[in-house]
Amino acid sequence: MLYRSCFHSNLKNIIRNNEVFRKYSVIAAVLEKPNVGNVTEIKGWVKNLRKQKDLIFADISDGSCAKKLQIVIPKNLTTDSLTYGSSVHVTGKLSKSPRGQLELVADGVKVLGTCVVLDGFPFNPRTIHPPEYTRQYLHLRSRTNYTSAILRIRSAVTKHIYDYFAANNYTNVHTPILTSNDCEGAGEVFKIQPDNEETVKAMMQEGKDRDSVYFGSKTFLTVSGQLHLEAVCRGMGNVYTFGPTFRAENSRSRLHLSEFYMLEAELAFCETLDQLQGAIEDLLKYVFIATRNTNEADLFLIDKENKAPSWVTKEFVTLTYDEARQILQKKGSALTDEGINKEQELTLVEHCGGVPVFVVKWPKDMKSFYMKESTEDSTKVDALDLLTPITGEVVGGSLREDNYEKLKSKLPSERLNWYLELRKFGNIPTGGYGLGLERLLQVLCNVNNIKDTLPFPRWPHNCDM
Amino acid sequence: MLYRSCFHSNLKNIIRNNEVFRKYSVIAAVLEKPNVGNVTEIKGWVKNLRKQKDLIFADISDGSCAKKLQIVIPKNLTTDSLTYGSSVHVTGKLSKSPRGQLELVADGVKVLGTCVVLDGFPFNPRTIHPPEYTRQYLHLRSRTNYTSAILRIRSAVTKHIYDYFAANNYTNVHTPILTSNDCEGAGEVFKIQPDNEETVKAMMQEGKDRDSVYFGSKTFLTVSGQLHLEAVCRGMGNVYTFGPTFRAENSRSRLHLSEFYMLEAELAFCETLDQLQGAIEDLLKYVFIATRNTNEADLFLIDKENKAPSWVTKEFVTLTYDEARQILQKKGSALTDEGINKEQELTLVEHCGGVPVFVVKWPKDMKSFYMKESTEDSTKVDALDLLTPITGEVVGGSLREDNYEKLKSKLPSERLNWYLELRKFGNIPTGGYGLGLERLLQVLCNVNNIKDTLPFPRWPHNCDM
């Protein structure tokens, strides 16, 4: 592997080639720069076996990429333990098959770990197991093509996100998971306690209950790092956070999880929704195109029909909330005080030709206290939702109320005085957004159920492993 | 900003220059490629003011880098609200001062947010506030040089870690925070519950208590993603996870937090401690050197004496546990059954000339059930701790027991049958390690107290914001 770094060139001498530690080659590297004629060692799992008279052909995957490497094994080198699912160490010479395909002609095959399907291995060769089936075997499902492809894409998307923000001078901020801010009832939250009774007893203070014994106040799992980001933004400029977020809702839909990854960015000196929309649109197009470049074969493994959506070269649509209401009304679908429901979100995207739609300028009563009142209409806030095919909303964002007095009048609790105080000293206008990684992956990979976009999904009554 | 991407060149056309959204330049970009004579707009905070007869000199920081940009302001352009801590929008022309320093000669200065120190702003110009003081103002301390420098370094280290693993073909895996695995009593854990009583009532089932009403079993915050990583490793090869981890210990030392970031990697087909040590040493040296290249000015802001440690070009020392015991015994410091304490760790590092020390081959009884029994001595396991100056242990790791029967005999609970089953089908030898990000930052930045290495530290009785 070449080290693809953008740092000073002297670093290349420091980075030892990890193959020194490995003493074998990963298949992604072999396929990237095939050296036909080279003696090569690979390690991986048997995905497929085809037996001929004197030869056995095996497709080996080591998880490093979507593609398998074909191994040609003389029959005298094989044993009965060389089966589908077994792990192997193969040495041989890289060659081209008569059809021009790269293959490894083995001169040594060692089975490292056997796999007897009849002993309870839940997967079968040449079988596409439906996601609902593999989801029952969370500890083994990364051995299937479908799950391993999604996990590689998830890893790549994560890397693209870090690359994008680094290139654009954002600072990555690790906002906390544990917080004394319960989101003011805006979302359902989990609370935490030490599990050990001894610890609870040792830390108990008069007037404190079990919920506040450890930290001195009731403590929750974060539902958003936004307020913390806003604090750091007012010293460091553009910032983002990317990590786990929690909802204690009793919701089992194909779009909800109890634990999910959220990307949140806060843009310093952001004064208009237009600037915020530009930043979101830019990020999304970047991630989609970069991932198609790096993981085309994985996308194909998941969905042979998966094509780059037409909208990556188009401008996203912008509708005001009032315009969206009128469009839906004409289609006989009235909005309630709850806002736009999932079906209506998807209707709006379809109405706009399948291109993502920003819905902007929302009624103030529907949105959070920190959103900035629109200058032209005090019943509205400068908020946005971005709607896409498959999932509907994937991004929510707003300009933040930067007027000290207006914010003070809307502050839901004294415990947020620190948040108000951010506006008192060297205040700046900011805006920001939150993007759900799993929903983005649903759109990118055309995956119907959100539970298949992450390795260990958690939802009500399900927290295996 | 040039987009420093390693992807296909056609991406450069897709990435719009974010300055389009910003309509101003970040100082890091201005300093990277100074265009003397150019009309330039910047936005940031006043860090310093020097008044002369007809001119005012202001140092402006926007948080994008350690360096400030000097602004030269004709007196007629300034107002009383231009004070230390205020936020400003400055337009002007980039010039060189008589001394050759880059400066912005202002033709427009707008104060965006005032800052009246006497109104309660806790920081003063030209003052180095001690970390214990700024820690009282978590929401404002990113406005200080010290904290902002550490946060930029933390962000850079995070990026270097992602770059390193991507370049070496590891897949990033988001292991879960919520888990039904309580780590078998190995560490003190937090448990979670929904906070909302209505949710609890609606989800209550017969025979379930409050702790298990939501997920169907008692659920904890993770203390390690290792077991989950091992599952994914057996389908995808080399994997890593990097995120928040929790300990419900009642510990208030300068080295402990209740929430901290841990990097954990699992190496497929890893058969020797030597391979594992090589991978750890390589990563650490890479991160140290890369960070010194990208954040030299930040390191200097924190500690003017900060020098690259001599060990980045040396091989790390390896001692067996027995050798370490003998060395300490000669120094009159006997080991107990608890292992090596903090003071002893630091003594060992000093004994080895300040170079990081791997202590390997630990007594089996001191270590976890999943660690691999040493082939040459069944009373030992193939485990390692890496000790460094300042913090002592920063990395712990081991080869994993890959023998099905041996692991079965040591398995602490039937609930881990899934973990045992990983060894049943296509098993491979693996090894892995966990690295504490905050301790790494302490070593890198020479920071005594771990609470100053992250934006929002959580420790007993402290979970502000």
From TrEMBL, chains A, B:
Annotated keywords: Aminoacyl-tRNA synthetase, ATP-binding, Ligase, Nucleotide-binding, Protein biosynthesis
EC number: 6.1.1.22
GO cellular component: mitochondrion
The keyword Electron transport is assigned to this record: no
Keyword Nuclease: no
Segments forming domain Aminoacyl-transfer RNA synthetases class-II family profile: 151-455
A molecular function GO annotation: asparagine-tRNA ligase activity
GO biological process terms on file: asparaginyl-tRNA aminoacylation
Family: Belongs to the class-II aminoacyl-tRNA synthetase family.
Annotated PANTHER family: ASPARAGINE--TRNA LIGASE, MITOCHONDRIAL-RELATED, ASPARTYL/LYSYL-TRNA SYNTHETASE
UniProt xrefs under NCBIfam families: asnS
Entry protein name: asparagine--tRNA ligase
The organism's taxonomic lineage, starting at the top: Eukaryota, Metazoa, Ecdysozoa, Arthropoda, Hexapoda
